[in-house]
Structure formats: structure tokens, C-alpha cells
Amino acid sequence: MTVSRTVCLGFLAVIIVGTILLMMPFSTSNGTWNDPIVALFTSTSAVCVTGLSVVDPGTYFSFWGQFFIALLAQIGGLGYMTTTTFLILLLGRRFDLRQKIAIQQALDRPGMEGSTQIIRSIIATTLIFEITGIFLLLPAFVPKYGWNEGLWLAIFHSINAWNNAGFSLFKDNLIGYQSSFLVVFTITGLIIFGGIGYQVILEAYFWLRDRLCKKPINLLLSLDFKVAVSTTLVLLIFGTIAFFFVELKNPETFGNLSFSDKFLVAWFQSVTPRTAGFNTIDIGKMTNAGLFFTIALMFIGASPGGTGGGIKTTTLRVLTSCTKAILQGKEEVFLYERKIAINLILKAVGVFIGSVTTVIASTILIALTDPELEFIQILFEVVSAFATVGLSTGITGSVSAAAKLTLIVTMYIGRVGVLLLMSAILGDPKPSRIHYPEENLLVG
């Protein structure tokens, strides 16, 4: 039982338990047993923090069903190893060497020291941001729905926004709040900070603390921080401008809105493809250019160590830096005056190729099972599932059972990661002392 197999089987176990809970009569609003496919799809979507749904969660599920969805999204956002480690800490037990190694690999840390402190910091960070989101959303929901329902709406949407899950209890998702500055910036803020990675947030906190305390030796920002923050900012700014102009004349999305509302919608649409799944416009009515640009942003996704999916911002930067190095005739890859190790380059290439292969395979399967669907709709749905986004053009509930099972598998692969899943299947690589001769090959 390797670490990769522990993580993969752990996610499967949580999905199965969630499916059983969502099948129970007390989880549905009509008090009857739930459809197994609906329960499995919803549980997988919640654990994989995707947000795709074949039913309306606000009306189909009872309070307990909605509670289980929020709980599964919380577990999925934290990650299996983080959740189990936190439970071990609550029980007062000590870590053995195997658990420390598992935490190190799950969090992608260079060493095993300080694992307990990191887990506690992750839990504390999560609670701080989610509670802050709840208090900010209360003024938007309580006046209209009352304290009981308004509080639950704030809790549910804050959890889903921070964990980049994207489930909403409103029939039109957040379209009814597209002009609300409070809701838009609260939800997008939670999405951005949840997807940028715990390590980046903690590093920013320590950096600000050192600055405010005027310590003589200031903390040097890591390469992870610089790459994640700079890439996120560029994608957010470029995405807002691109969506503003691409959908500007579309009367079904931006065309009939005021300038301020257009800006809010463009900003929200730039943030949400970073694996969140909320929407303030009807995605199915976007132009093909807007849909394809959304697909590109969904495929890139969030940053490592966060609650989002996709190939990650760091993978994108490594691949673009490799392309830049080739064009400049260099044999080494640099980022912010730091050399990128060859094993990281190979890992980035592996993540990209594995992700593209998964998307192509899933798209072909759904195209065979549901030939009446348009290609752009299928590709959009598959990338949304793989990148654990949750945005949809509106076809999720109407696809065949075979297509739903394909999306379930795609969401699972996207959450655990292509390389981690292959490592779980094939086992840990065995070291080899054999070295083969080098030879040139025509490429490009």
C-alpha cells in the first residue's frame, strides 16, 4: 500500500460513503430513496470539488442532503490526507514514519519536519476565510430569506466558494446576484484565495508580519509564491478584459447590462473558470469564442496546494518557460533567476500529456454515447469535469447514464491527479542502473 494508493483509495472511500448518505430518504426533499446514479454523481462532484450536478441541489435535496454535500466538499477541498491527519490530531495520536511521508507527498513538501504545524495552519486558514465569507454574505441573504435560511445559504456558499466546489442552492446559481458588489467580490475573493494554495497564503502572512514588525532580516519569497501569484494576476486581468470584449455585443450575456454590471460579470467570469463553478450569466448562451476561452482557463486551473484543479499555474509557467528557452537557443530553463530542475520539467510535461489524453478520451466516449450533443458542449463539459470546475452549458442533467459515468471517472482523475493515479496503478518506480547511449531525433 503505497502513498499514492492510500490517497486514491481514500478518495474512493469518501465518495462511496457520500453516495450512501445521499441515497438515504432523509437526504432528499421528497423523503424517498435517491437514484444511485444521482447520488454517486453528486458525491463524486462534491468530493472532487467540481460542482457539476444532474439535479438542482436547492430543491432536490433536503437540509441533510445539502449538509452532506457541503461536508463532502470540505473534505475534498482539504484533501484526504489533510482530513485524516486532522482527525488523528483530534484523537491525540502520534504520527508514525509512514504517515509523515504520506503528508509530505500529499502536500508536496521538501521535508517531513513541521507536518503537524502545517496541518493545523491549513485548518486554521480554512476556518478564518470561511467564517469571514459567512459574515460577509449574511447582509446579502438574511434580509431576503430570514436568519435561519439566510445563515445556511451563507454557510453553504462560503464553504463551496473557498473549496472551489461551485454548488449553489439557487436555481439560477448566482445570476440573481450578478450586480451585487458584496456577493461578487466575496465569492471571487474566496475562490482566488482558496485556489492559490495554503503555502502561498502562509508565506504572504509571514512576509507581511516581518514587514509590519520591521524585522532586520525579511523573509525571501519562494519561487512557488512568485510564480503562483504573478500567473494568477495575469490570468485574472487578461481574462476580465477578454470576456468583456468577447461577450460585449452578446444580448444573452453582457449586451443589455450597464457598464458596471458588465465589469462585475466579466471579472466573475474570469475568476470562476479557475475551478470554482459558480456563474452569474447563462453559460449555455455564451458565444463560441467565450466558451472556448473559458475552456482554456478551466484547463489551466488553480495553483498547487490549493482547493482547485486543472494542470495548475506552475505547470503552465514551466512549459511556457521551456518554450521561451528553446526560442532563445538556451539549454537550461530559468524562472525568476532560478534554474528549473529537469525532473520538474519532465513532471510538467507528464501532467500536460496525461491531462490532454484524459480530456480527449472522455470527449470521444461521450461523443459516441450522446451523438446528438454539439462538440463544443461535450468538450466544455469534459474539461469542466477534469479540471474540477463545475461550469456547464446546461447538458449535465440530460446526458445518458454512460456519459454521466464517464464524467464521474473524469472528475475523479482530475481530483487525484493523472500522475498520482498512474503511480497508484503501476506502483512506485524501481531504480535502474542501466544507462542508454544518447542519439539525436528530429523534432518539430
Written account of the structure:
By secondary structure, the chain is mainly alpha-helical. It has one domain. It is 64% helix and 1% strand. The chain contains 17 helices and two strands. A two-stranded antiparallel ribbon has the order 1-2. The longest helix is centred in the N-terminal third of the chain and has 48 residues. The radius of gyration is 22 Å and the shape is globular. The model has no long low-confidence stretch (mean pLDDT 88).
Uncertain spans: none
The tally of beta strands, per DSSP, is: 2
Helix amount, in percent?
A: 55-70%
Strand content: under 5%
Count of helices? 17
Oligomeric state? single chain
Task: State the shape.
Answer: globular
Mean pLDDT: 88
> Order of strands side by side in the largest beta sheet?
1-2
Count structural domains.
1
Radius of gyration: 22 Å
Ordered list of secondary-structure elements with their pairings:
Elements: H1 3-23, H2 36-47, H3 57-60, H4 63-78, H5 80-91, H6 97-106, H7 115-162, H8 181-196, H9 198-213, H10 223-246, H11 259-271, H12 288-300, H13 313-327, E1 334-335, E2 338-339, H14 342-369, H15 375-386, H16 401-416, H17 418-426
Antiparallel strand pairs: 1-2
